[in-house]
Recover the amino acids of this structure.
């Protein structure tokens, strides 16, 4: 650690010397009577330029030396706090009403010799999962179970509990959905990408944490990577297992937790290429006795005992019957309890002859009951919620490969979003053509005119390159990740900016807007303009600048899936304020709109290059404005509160894969049970 700090100081010395020499030369030029800058305006401009260079030097130092010398334990602690705030286990997921479903599991013996050692006396319960995992050597665990058995719930509970009990030497558990892992992408690079996108940390810090063994990937959804019928050797699931087998920390297998459906992992294990050096646990089915206990303790069952008694009696009398088999997983049990809360009568399930018929009747009430539970006066009607979720489910199903994650900035890159990409290209092209068309007739001859044309062409190409999968961004993900406007995290960010390691860089960077404000507000005898009108016009820009600085100070604070949209809105305001000031000055000086149009259009083109993901998302919304709400992120956040959508890091997911497939098959709410379209228990059997 001492050597790292000394290396950081050595990197800082030349930057300090360069900054001091530059400052001395510029001050000598400014103060040279008769030879230097003769007017106050020239001197202020020169000093502002110097301070800008110094701010850039400080930023470079913060991005290189500070990153290199920062202690891994401090980075892990910050990431742990981020994960803790992001992966709050919703009460609705495990049942709500202070009555959770009891999830139990048992360790299974591996079919091969190279497996991890298991605990001598396992707990086998949700509360004891962390203790059981710590007894596994090496710390690699596979969680298996039937569809809806609670694998994701168990993984989320593990992340929350392990993070709460984590010691300084232990890694930080991070829940990662597997559906976007590409075949050509290294596992380490994929984890870095998710840490940057989902939790807002820098790529350098993410790589440092992974290389130090301070990240525990909790991988969810191995069974959702491939369509049915894909040959096992060519499957993405097999590729994941091969990559995890070679994932090491030094000479030891790196810790990892993986969830998978039982039948698929049995096939993978029988093939001779499972994840080696791992222990395996199998989630137990929910017994009829546990289902009776859970349902009988619900508040609604106590208040409406007459409606629920026949259902409970059926479960007691026929523990292997159709209803008991339909409620043998925590997901279906919780969905059934939610569907018949307060209003609908659960007796209708007694007439179902198949498990699929039970599912159809139950899901027909699930959305209306969830809407009633979240709002006394619902913001959205159940019919509209069903129709909008149906469109989103179709979007995911059209991408194939078992995709179940909804990333808002990526919607315009889905296979069915061709018209959204066309609209984006047309928008960028029109902005570039209007900029050149209004500038060229009045363009100065020589290098200045050619330079401006090259600048416009460069910005246009950068904006269009965002369409590519491996796109280059002028603003990284971390710079766009901002919390909600009313979040108390802004106060935390302001304190971190003023008292943290980067306070000197912030103070130096603040000199430039301060001098601009002084130049506008100060009276003429002090070298200012005394223009209060201009001050009122430019003040919002300075406030937005302060907001960006505070947002940057948040560093590794999780912001949720809507952070990109808030970041894009803030960048739009930052560019809109100077554009508005420019337009106001032009009109005040008696100039026409044609004079102010070129810079305004140029600002729009620059915004496409800085925040093209946001622009493409807006194009997608314009194409689908009749099928999804325009404020889609607000609707999805509401669905998360209602228990219809879950949030994993920086992505949205349907509450369960079975629910996503069901709603994709039903464009409208059911008025009566329908015949099953396919058996969900075998829908994804390889």
């Amino acid at each position: 650690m001492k050597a790292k700090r000394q290396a950081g100081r050595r990197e800082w010395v030349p930057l300090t010397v360069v900054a001091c020499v530059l400052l001395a030369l510029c001050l000598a030029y400014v103060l040279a009577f008769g030879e230097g800058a003769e007017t106050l305006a020239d001197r202020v401009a020169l000093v502002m330029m110097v301070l800008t260079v110094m701010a850039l030097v400080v930023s470079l130092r913060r991005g290189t030396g500070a990153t290199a010398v920062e202690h891994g334990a401090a980075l892990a602690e910050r990431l742990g706090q981020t994960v803790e705030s992001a992966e709050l286990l919703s009460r609705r997921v495990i049942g709500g009403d202070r009555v959770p479903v009891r999830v139990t599991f048992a360790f299974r013996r591996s079919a091969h010799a190279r497996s991890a050692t298991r605990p001598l006396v396992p707990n086998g319960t949700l509360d004891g999962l962390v203790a059981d995992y710590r007894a596994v050597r090496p710390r690699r665990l596979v969680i298996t179970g039937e569809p809806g058995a609670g694998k994701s719930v168990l993984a989320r509970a593990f992340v929350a509990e392990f993070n709460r009990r984590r010691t300084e030497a232990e890694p930080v558990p991070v829940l990662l959905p597997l559906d976007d892992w590409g075949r050509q992408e290294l596992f380490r690079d994929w984890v870095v990408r998710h840490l940057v996108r989902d939790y807002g940390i820098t790529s350098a810090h993410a790589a440092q944490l992974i290389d130090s063994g301070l990240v525990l990937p909790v991988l969810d959804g191995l069974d959702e990577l491939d369509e049915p019928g894909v040959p096992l050797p060519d499957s993405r699931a097999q590729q994941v297992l091969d990559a995890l087998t070679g994932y090491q920390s030094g000479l030891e297998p790196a810790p990892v937790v993986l969830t998978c459906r039982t039948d698929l992992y049995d096939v993978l294990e029988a093939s001779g290429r499972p994840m080696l050096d791992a222990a395996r646990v199998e989630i137990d089915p929910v017994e009829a006795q546990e289902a009776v206990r859970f349902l009988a303790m619900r508040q609604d069952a106590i208040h409406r005992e007459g409606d629920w008694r026949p259902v409970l009696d059926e479960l007691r009398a026929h523990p292997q019957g159709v209803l008991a088999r339909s409620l043998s997983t925590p997901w279906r049990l919780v969905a059934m309890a939610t569907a018949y809360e307060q209003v609908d009568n659960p007796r209708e399930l007694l007439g179902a002859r198949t498990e699929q018929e039970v599912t159809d009747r139950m899901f027909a009430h699930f959305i209306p009951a969830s809407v009633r539970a979240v709002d006394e006066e619902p913001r959205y009607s159940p019919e509209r919620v069903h129709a909008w979720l149906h469109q989103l489910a179709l979007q995911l199903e059209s991408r194939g490969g078992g995709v179940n994650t909804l990333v808002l900035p990526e919607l315009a890159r889905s296979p069915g979003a061709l018209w959204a990409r066309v609209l984006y290209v047309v928008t960028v092209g029109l902005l570039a053509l209007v900029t050149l068309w209004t500038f060229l007739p009045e363009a100065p001859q020589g290098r200045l005119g050619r330079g401006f044309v090259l600048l416009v062409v460069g910005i246009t190409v950068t904006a269009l390159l965002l369409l590519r999968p491996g796109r280059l961004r002028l603003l990284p993900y971390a710079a766009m990740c901002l919390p909600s406007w009313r979040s108390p995290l802004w106060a935390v960010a302001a304190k971190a900016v003023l008292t943290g390691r980067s306070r000197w860089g912030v103070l130096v960077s603040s000199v430039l807007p301060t001098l601009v404000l002084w130049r506008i507000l100060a009276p003429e005898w002090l070298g200012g303009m005394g223009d209060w009108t201009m001050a009122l016009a430019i003040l919002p820009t300075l406030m937005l600048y302060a907001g960006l600085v505070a947002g940057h100070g948040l560093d590794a604070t999780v912001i949720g899936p809507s952070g990109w949209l808030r970041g894009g809105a803030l960048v739009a305001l930052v560019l809109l304020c100077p554009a508005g000031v420019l337009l106001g000055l032009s009109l005040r000086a008696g100039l026409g709109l044609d004079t102010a149009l070129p810079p305004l259009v140029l600002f729009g083109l620059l915004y496409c290059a800085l925040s093209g993901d946001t622009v493409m998302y807006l194009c997608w919304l314009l194409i689908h404005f009749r099928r999804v709400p325009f404020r889609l992120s607000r609707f999805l956040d509401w669905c998360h509160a209602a228990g219809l959508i879950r949030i994993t890091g920086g992505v949205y997911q349907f509450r369960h894969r079975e629910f996503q497939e069901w709603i994709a098959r039903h464009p409208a709410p059911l008025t009566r049970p329908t015949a099953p379209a396919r058996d969900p228990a075998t829908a994804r059997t390889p």
The CA atoms of residues 6 and 69 lie 9 Å apart. The chain has 27 helices and eleven strands.
